[in-house]
Every structure is written in structure tokens, then in C-alpha cells.
Specification:
This protein has about 200 residues and is α+β, with helices and mostly antiparallel strands. Helix 1 runs antiparallel to helix 4 (about 95-105). It has helices spanning about 25-35, 55-60, 75-85, 95-105, 145-155, 160-165, 165-170, 190-195; strands at about 15-20, 45-50, 110-115, 130. It is built from eight helices and four strands; from the N terminus they run βαβαααββαααα.
Length: about 200
């Protein structure tokens, strides 16, 4: 909340933090990474048990949790900003080498960027260092190459339209980053498209 004494990730010590996320373990590891950025673990905070990701937002709105994880420009951020009397704000991350390394060890493939205030972005009062990660579309190895090729081609050739939709696409999506090394195997159908477009560098 805007009137919170929490100003840095290190200030989360002793605070009430959503914990568990058994129905979406990705978010558990993101919280672990957030705490690591502040030199903390779940042993340093008060755990607020949740199963679903959305429960963390509800606990925050009810005043039962001190922080909640959300995306820039998301609808839930607008909702929380309207619900919490003092409004809400994003917590800046520590970009020192040690803090960044600690976060990366717990939440691989996350990284920090500066996000500037703008229309439709609640919770950003000034340029703020935030943690982000790339969204990934998964396909089975049995999914036909031509199906994956067509999906990736549609995304690649309509990047500007995706950005116009807003949300996560508007803030960081580029077609060049679609073939970024994520540490996992890419489907042959996707590789074929990226090679045709000249963006496959491996």
C-alpha cells in the first residue's frame, strides 16, 4: 500500500507474505526470488498460506498480507489500487550484483528492468526497478510441426497488434525476443519460422 513502511525488498523481513501456491508453483518460486533479492527467505517472514495465486491478492485487499505479486498494467492491479484506501505501489528491486545473483538463483530466467510511469499503469509513481520474466508457450513434442509453425508465424507477424492489446505485450514484447534462449528446447516448427525470419542465432 502507498502508506506502507515497506520501501525495499529487505523491508519484507517480518512481514506477512503469501506462501504455498500449491496450484501454481511458479508463483512460489517468484516469491522466493523476491525475498532472496532482499537477503531473506521464508524463514524471515510470516507465512500467509494460499493455494491459488489469486488468494494472495485477496489476502492483500483484506489487509491479511502485506504484499501481493501482480503484473504491470494488469486488471488486478487496477482493482487493488481502487480497493486499498491509500492506493498501492510497486516495490523496487535491489539491482546490486549480490542481490541480483541471489534472486536469479531462486527464480531462474528472471531479470530486472526500469519501468516508467505511464497511462493505465497504476502503482508506479516514478521510474522503478522491477523483476520480470518472459512468457513461454509450451507445445508437446508430438504437436505437428506445421501447427506450431503457423502459431509462431501469426505471433511473429502480428507483433504490433499484440502490443496494442496492452498488458504484458505492451510493456516488453518484441518479435526479436521470441527466439531468446530460455534454457529449454524449442519445437522444430518454431525453429523453422525463426530461421526463416533470421532471428534464430544458435
Amino acid at each position: 500500500a502507498n502508506d506502507s513502511e515497506i520501501k525495499t525488498t529487505a523491508d519484507l523481513k517480518g512481514k506477512r507474505i503469501p506462501f504455498g501456491h500449491d496450484a501454481g508453483l511458479l508463483f512460489h518460486f517468484l516469491y522466493v526470488g523476491i525475498l532472496a533479492n532482499g537477503g531473506l527467505t521464508y524463514d524471515d517472514v510470516e507465512k500467509v498460506p494460499v493455494v491459488l495465486f489469486r488468494e494472495g491478492w485477496n489476502k492483500f485487499k483484506q489487509g491479511k498480507a502485506d504484499v501481493a505479486l501482480t503484473g504491470v498494467g494488469s486488471g488486478i492491479m487496477k482493482e487493488m489500487n481502487a480497493t486499498v484506501p491509500s492506493g498501492v505501489r510497486y516495490l523496487p528491486f535491489d539491482d546490486s550484483p549480490a542481490a541480483s545473483k541471489a534472486m536469479l538463483q531462486q527464480s531462474p530466467r528472471t531479470f530486472l528492468i526500469d519501468v516508467e510511469p505511464g497511462p493505465g499503469i497504476d502503482g508506479l509513481m516514478t521510474t522503478t526497478k522491477l523483476a520480470v520474466y518472459d512468457y513461454t508457450i509450451y507445445a508437446s513434442k508430438t504437436t505437428p510441426d506445421d501447427v506450431v509453425y503457423k502459431v509462431v508465424k501469426a505471433l511473429y507477424e502480428h507483433g504490433d497488434e499484440l502490443k496494442a492489446v496492452g498488458g504484458v505485450f505492451q510493456k516488453g514484447f518484441t518479435v526479436e525476443n521470441m527466439s531468446k534462449d530460455q534454457g529449454i528446447a524449442y519445437h522444430p516448427g518454431a525453429i523453422k519460422l525463426y530461421k526463416e525470419k533470421g532471428s534464430w542465432k544458435r
